[in-house]
Amino acid sequence: MPVDTPAQVEWLEHQFARYLSFSFDFDVVVAHKDLSDDHILIDPVKGELTGIIDFADAGFSHPALDFSGLWRYGEAFVREVAGHYRGNMDEDFLARSRFPAMVHMADTMRALESHELPVTFEQLRAELDEVIASGLTL
User: Fold this and answer.
1) What is the model's pLDDT at position 1?
2) Helix (H) or strand (E) holding 130
3) What is the dihedral angle through the alpha carbons of 113, 118, 123, 128, rounded to the nearest 10 degrees?
4) Where are the beta strands (DSSP E) in 8-138?
5) pLDDT digit string (tens) for 67-107?
6) What are the start-end ranges of the H helices in 22-120?
7) Does residue 124 register a pLDDT over 80?
8) Which of 82, 99, 100, 133 is the most buried (most CB within 10 A)?
9) In 10 A of CB 118, how many CB atoms?
10) Looking at the domain 6-133, which fold is it?
């Protein structure tokens, strides 16, 4: 079975074309580059951020990359966090941050062909098809 169906290839090509259409003239910052739920510490009683851990992937990047892992909580959450962000946000900032999250499933599907992971290829294929069917795009 091919890694991607024709519909998935078309969708991925569109996402990459859209991403590459963004301006790459931006200020580079030191970014965490792996900001996800397992690296964000929250006080469960107060519901407040208490810390950020695991800076192993930190480096120079577009600041939008730090928003990528937040998309799993939904667009409303990302927009709420972005409302508190004090850095420079260009017009493509949120779309740029969404790109890695959107193509992650397809990337993991390819990894499954040669590695054992805690999710099956077909589970990711179904999840990717759900995203495509929902009309989600940059």
Assistant:
1) 45
2) helix 121-133
3) -80
4) 29-31, 40-43, 48-52, 59-61
5) 998 998 889 999 999 999 998 898 899 999 999 888 887 87
6) 75-84, 93-112
7) yes
8) 99
9) 5
10) Aminoglycoside 3'-phosphotransferase; Chain: A, domain 2 (3.90.1200)
Please list, in sequence order, all residues whose beta carbon lies within 8 angstroms of the beta carbon of residue 67, skipping any fewer than 6 positions away. Answer: 35, 78, 81, 82, 93, 94, 97
Q: Count CB atoms within 10 A of the CB of residue 8.
A: 19
Token pair for residue 11?
């969708």
64/92 Cα distance (integer angstroms): 9
- Looking up tokens 């890695």, which residue turns up? 100
- Which tokens go with 63? 């600041």
How far is Cα 127 from Cα 121, in angstroms, rounded to an integer?
Answer: 10
Cα separation, 102 vs 117, whole angstroms: 19
Q: Which of 93, 130, 128, 136 is nearest to 9 (CA)?
A: 128
How is the chain split into domains, by residue range? 6-133
Is this prediction's pTM over 0.85?
no
**Cβ partners under 8 Å of residue 89, min gap 6:** 64, 82
Residues 6+ apart with CB under 8 A from 114: none
